[in-house]
Amino acid sequence: MEVVLAKSMGFCFGVKRAVETVYEQAGTEEDIYTYGEIVNNEEVVEDLRRKGVKVIGNREELGKIESGTVIIRAHGVARDVYEQIAAQGLTLIDATCPFVKRIHRIVESESEAGRQIVVVGSPQHPEVEGIVGWCKTPAVIIETVEEAEAYRPTEDKALCIVSQTTFNYKKFQDIVEIFERKDYNVNIAKTICNATEERQKEAKDIAASVDAMIVIGGKHSSNTRKLYEICSRECARTYFIQTLDDLHLELPKSVRLVGITAGASTPNNIIEEVQNYVRINF
Ligand code: F3S
To answer: Which of 120, 137, 171, 218 is 20 to 30 A from 27 in CA distance terms?
Structure first.
C-alpha cells in the first residue's frame, strides 16, 4: 500500500514549541504546572501527568500554589495572570505562541493610544480571554456578522480590529467589510494564523487524489472534525480515528493509495504508528 502523508499536519509551530517546553521541564526537580491543558489531546496530557506535570485550571487554583514553575501555553493568558505568578514568587516560563504574543502587544499599545479594541473571535476561547486581558481599556468581542452589524461605538473613537488566530478567514473578511462600510476610522491588524488554512487546503488536495483517507485526531478536537468533513467531501472512504486502536480497515483490493492527515493537537508518535501500520499491513 502506498501512503501519502500530509506535510502540514499534527502540532502547529506554536503548540509544538509549547509541548516541547513542558517535556524539557518535566524531568527537573521543580514542581511543574501548566496553566490550562497544554494541548487539546488526552494522550499527551496524560503522559505529562505521569511525568509529574500538574494542570492549573484557573486563577483560584493558581492562588493556592506555593512554589514551582508555571508554564503558559500557546494560547497565551491575560496580563494579570503573569502578575499573579510573579506576586506569588513562582517561576514563569512563557510558551505563548509568538503570533499570539504579537496580538497582545498590538492591543496593549493601540488601546493605550486611545483606540477601541475589537477582537473578532469566540468569547469563550481562552486565546480571546488572554487578548482581552492585555487591553488597557475594555475591549469588544465580535463573533458574527450580525453582531458586527449591530455594533455601535460608544464614543466617536478610532477602532483597532484584531482576530483570534484560528478564526475563519472568510468570516473575518465579512466582519471587517461591515466596519469599513460604516465608515469607521479603523486600523485592521491581520492576525489570523495560516497554519489552519494551510492544512485544510493540503488535506483537501490529498483526499481528492487517493483511494482512502485517514484523519487522526481527538474526538473533541474541532479542527480535526473540520478536516474530516473536508476530506469526506473529496473521498468517500474517509476514516476518522483517535489512535491506531480505532483503525479497523477493510479495504478492497482496488485501494492502492491511502492519504493520512491529522489535527493540530495530534502528537507525532500516533501519526507514525498509524502510517507504519498502514504501510505494513495493507
Ligand atoms: Fe498554532 Fe500559533 Fe498558529 S499556536 S495555530 S502557530 S498562532
So the answer is: 218
pLDDT at 42: 81
Catalytic residue among 20, 46, 108, 127, which? 127
For ligand 1, atom 3, which residue shows the shortest CA distance? 193
* Distance from C-alpha of 93 to C-alpha of 22, rounded to nearest angstrom: 9
What is the C-alpha to C-alpha distance for residues 262 and 203, in angstroms, rounded to an integer? 9
Residue 18's SS3 state is helix
pTM metric for this prediction: 0.84
Q: How many C-beta neighbours within 10 Å does residue 264 have?
A: 26
- Are 238 and 212 a contacting pair, CB within 8 Å? yes
CA–CA distance, 266 with 260 (Å, rounded to integer): 12
Write the DSSP assignment of 165-191 as a string of letters.
TTS-HHHHHHHHHHHHHTT--EEE---
Backbone angles phi, psi at 147, to 5 degrees: -65, -35
